[in-house]
Amino acid sequence: MNILITSASNKVWLVQAFRRALINHGGGEVTAADINENRAALYFADRTLITPENNHPDFIASILKYCKNENIQLIIPTRDGELKIFSENTELFKKNNIIVMVSEPKTIEICLDKFEFYRFCKNNHIDTPDTCLPHDICNLSFPVFIKPRFGSGSRNTYIAKNSSKLEQYVSLYDETEFVIQEYHS
User: Fold this and answer.
1) pLDDT tens digits for 153-169?
2) Can you tell me the distance from the alpha carbon of 24 to that of 37, in angstroms, rounded to the nearest whole number?
């Protein structure tokens, strides 16, 4: 089996793990793909692919062409920003005997929206920190954790120890852009 890992970036461990798995289970090659030719994971793969950004009109077509040419049977997307586009194109890949390891679009939408994910967890009795939107009345005790509603990598996250700090952070962003959560150290 040949595998394509997209947005490989610095995920050397992931490339190495799949290479070992293929060696131990019948063989195949791992292609690491990224938009930047200087990413570390590319140097640990059997093959490399430099791709356009996932918002480029040729992104899916270029991935499909590569997969067909190199007999790729499995695509493993690794970055939040590309999950939805791969999910929306799973049938196209499936018609070409290529499996994309990705969830349904609705699942991805829920998981990428931290408030919707919180609501999903609560509705399914999954323990999760209490979370609210800034315009809601929150019954959270300080300190609270503030983070973007959509985003990854722990960027633009803050701990507000009191209401004035919370107001200061809230003023930095549109109130629909972040969530407030209970914080436990």
Assistant:
1) 777 788 999 888 888 88
2) 28
